[in-house]
Amino acid sequence: MFSRSLRSLPKNVLARMFSTPRGTPTIVWTEVDEAPALATYSLLPIVQAFTAPDVRVEMKDISLSGRILANFPEHLTPAQRIPDELAACGDLCLKPEANIIKLPNISASVPQLVAAVKELQAKGYKLPDFPEAPKTDAEKAIKAKYAKVMGSAVNPVLREGNSDRRAPPSVKNYAKKNPHKMGKVLPTSRTRVAHMNGGDFFSNEQSVTVDAATDVRMELVKANGEIQVMKKSTPLSAGEVLDSTFMSKAKLVAFYEKCMSDAKSEGTILSLHLKATMMKVSDPIMFGLAVRVYFKTLFERHGPVLDSLGCDPNNGIGDILRKSRNCQMCNALPSWPITKFAWLKVLVWPWLTLTRESLTCTFLLILLSMPPCLP
C-alpha cells in the first residue's frame, strides 16, 4: 500500500515516458497509492500506446512515500533524494495552459503515515520518527513537516487552479436521456437516509459579500468569554465573499447516539459518511466522536488508561489497538477487552470496519447490528 507503485515497471517503459521531445504536448500522470495505483497498472500502458509518439506522458510522484521523501532531503543521501513533485503539480495548476483531467483525492491518516515511515526506514531511508506527542522544538518542527504530507493537506495544493469539477453539459444531457436504472425497491426494504436537522455546518453557515477592500481577523470566542485569535490578518478585496460556519459537538453526538440506537433496534446496517470542507481539521474530530459514541462504555470505564497511553479515537480503532496491545496496566484489568486478541478477532472486526476511502477522502463507518455500548 505504501510502496511507490510504479517502481516495479520495466526500465524501458519509464525511459520511454521521458524520451520524447520537450516541445510536444505533455500528459502529467500523477503516481499515487491504493486503488488509483492499481488503476495505473492497467490504464497507463494503454494511454502510452495510444499517445506515443505525439504526446509525452510524464510521471509525477505524489504518493505518500514520495511526499515523505521530498520533505526530508536533509535526512537522505544524494541518491535517495527526489524532487517535490506535489509542489510542481501545484505550480502547474496555476498556469492557464494546464487542462486538469481528473483531480486525485489523496488520503493519508496518521496510522498510514507512521506505517509508511517505518517501511521506508526499513528500506534504508534514515527518516525521523513521526512524533505523535512532540515535546521539544525539534520534534514540533518534524511534526509540522509531516503535516504537509498528510492526505488532507495535499488536495488544496492541487485545487488552487482551474479545478472545475462540474460535469459538462454533454454528460448531463446524456444522463437525462439515459437515466440509470435502479433495482426494484421492495416494500419490505428498511433502507433510509438520516441526516442532521440542525447544529451542523449547513444550518450554521453565514456569508457576507464585502463592499470595499478590508482586512479581517479570525477569532474564537470561548464559552468563558475568552477570545483566541486564530488568524491575525486576512486581506479581502471588494466583492469577495467571506463564509463561515461551525458544527455543534453536542448535537452531533446526539445524532450519532440516535442513529446507532435506531440501527440496533431495527436490526439494520449503519453506514456513516462524513464530509467537511476542512477535512484535515474537521473530519478526524467528527470521526473520533463516532468512535467514542459507539464504544461509549469502553471510554467511560477505561478512559484514563486510554488517555495515559496516548490513544486517540480520531485516528480510529487501529490507533487504540496498537497503543494498548502491550500495555501491562491493560493486562492487569480483568475486564479490559482490547488487549484480548481473541476478543478483538471475535467482536471487533466482524461488526466494526473503520476505513478512509482513498478516492473520496470520505470517512466511512460501517456498523452491523450490535449493541452500541460494548461490555
Give a nutshell description of this structure:
By secondary structure, the protein is α+β, with helices and mostly antiparallel strands. It has helices at 11-18, 34-51, 64-71, 85-93, 110-122, 137-147, 151-158, 169-177, 201-204, 249-266, 282-294, 296-308, 317-324, 328-331, 341-351, and strands at 26-31, 56-61, 206-209, 214-221, 227-236, 241-244, 270-274, 352-356, 363-367.
3D structure, described in words:
The chain is an alpha+beta fold and 375 residues long. It has three domains: 11-158, no CATH class; 206-244, no CATH class; 249-367, no CATH class. It is 41% helix and 14% strand. It has 15 helices and nine strands. The chain has a three-stranded antiparallel beta sheet. The protein has a two-stranded parallel ribbon with strand order 1-2. Strands 3-6 form a two-stranded antiparallel ribbon. Helix 2 (34-51) links the parallel strand 1 and strand 2. Helix 10 (249-266) packs across helix 11 and helix 11 (282-294) packs across helix 12 (296-308). Residues 1-21 and 333-375 have low confidence and may be disordered.
Shape: globular
Largest sheet: 3 strands, antiparallel
> How many helical elements?
15
What Rg, in angstroms, do the CA atoms define? 24 Å
Helix and strand pattern: HEHEHHHHHHHEEEEHEHHHHHEE
Structural category: alpha+beta
Main sheet strand line-up: 7-9-8
Mean pLDDT: 75
Distance N to C terminus: 34 Å
Helix content: 40-55%
- Tally of DSSP β-strands: 9
Which regions are unreliable across 5 or more consecutive residues at pLDDT < 50?
1-21, 333-375
Range of strand content: 5-15%
Quaternary assembly: single chain
Summed up, the domain count is 3
